[in-house]
Amino acid sequence: MGNINYGIQLYTVRDALGQDFKGTLKSLAKLGYQGLEFAWNYGGMEPAELAAFLKENKLLCCGLHTSLDKLLDPANIDYAYAVALGAPCVTISLCGSLEKDLPGMVAKVTEGAKIAKSKGLTFTYHNHAQEFVKIDGAYVLDLFYQATDPALVQAEIDTYWVKKGGADPVSYIKKYSGRIPQLHFKDMNPETGNFAELGTGCVDFPGVLEVAKKDGTKWVIYEQDSTAPNAPLDSAAISAKNMLKLLKS
Known about the structure:
Layout: E1 5-9, H1 14-19, H2 21-31, E2 35-39, H3 47-56, E3 60-65, H4 68-71, H5 77-85, E4 89-92, H6 102-118, E5 122-126, E6 134-135, E7 138-139, H7 140-147, E8 153-158, H8 159-164, H9 169-175, E9 182-185, E10 187-188, E11 195-196, H10 205-215, E12 219-222, H11 232-248
Parallel strand pairs: 1-2, 1-12, 2-3, 3-4, 4-5, 5-8, 8-9, 9-12
Antiparallel strand pairs: 6-7, 10-11
């Protein structure tokens, strides 16, 4: 079984970042997060400056979420950040687009993935619940992965959205063994169906983690979009505590 690092998608604490970018990153480091997955916000710092700040605070970049348009632009600044920060992966999502134009999206994503690869980056696709609609009896997300080259298009499976879409996260992750360098750890309140702090909901994270360790996943990344009962940084603290306990078990 391989070693797995743990991080946080910074979209989780987007409001705090707007108030105090550097202070928020330092707080996340104190909570025990090893890595940060960036999403559009770089604190007004240039790539080299941000890279130096992460190094100073013993933080790693575990990924960078961008848009399809930016992925398709080799000169986009997000690539400069990804390279400077040592991001292993660059990621996009296409909420509601795959089922509307699967062939077109496959072509565009493949083109973008080739650009990412040329810069030494792995491309991963982040799912939501929309990709679990079916076409001719098959999930759109499965059709997407079947139509793309695993050497170019990897997966950042999101546990909450898999469950929200009606599939079992453990079984679904097993299906793409060896193709998931990153996993989004996101929990679900079983009563409301809303997001929950990691380890407080109904997602089988011990089962997910067992599969992930066997399959060579490098990063598990906590994310919580909204709708939790606590403030984002408080939720991050709860989730960090539960994540560390889980990873050590």
